[in-house]
Amino acid sequence: MTPDQVKASYRRLMNAVGETIAIRRFTGAGHNRPRFDANVMARVVDYEPHELAGSITQGDRKLIVLVEDLIYAQVPLDLRKGDKVVVRGRELNVEAADDNTRRVQGVLIAYELQVRG
Question: Do residues 14 and 28 touch, judged by C-beta distance below 8 A?
Fold first, then answer.
């Protein structure tokens, strides 16, 4: 499959099972530091028991977020540990942002985020 075909497949899946979340990034320091929020669609799933290894612990969740949605929402494409996401009104910590697993022919289709909180 070409990257465009894979993107279209991911889009269909996201439209069917995705939900709106917020990507949240703080800047500066202190209690009143400014933040940037952007709403995007994501697929939110729990990790399977066999996936609980290494830094993945029970209660962590996996979020699949399309790169096209991040670009459209003007989210910097350097998602990283320390960023936040808001899922169903609850702020969660980004523990890892995988930008390798969901690449096709070198084109990043989606981030896979490990979140906790």
Answer: no
The span from the CA of 100 to the CA of 110, in Å, is 9
Q: What is this structure's pTM?
A: 0.90
Rounded CA gap, 75 and 99, in Å? 15
Spatial neighbors of 16 by CB under 8 A, at least 6 apart, are none
Q: pLDDT at residue 95 above 90?
A: yes
Distance CA 42, CA 60 (A): 15
Q: Which CATH number does the domain 3-116 belong to among 2.60.40, 2.40.10, 3.30.1490, 3.30.450?
A: 2.40.10
pLDDT at 52: 80
**Any alpha helices (H) in 26-100, and if so which ranges?**
67-72
How far apart CA 102 and CA 104 sit, in angstroms, is 7
- Pairing mode, strands 61-66 and 84-87: unpaired
Q: Which residues pair with 26 in a beta bridge?
A: 35
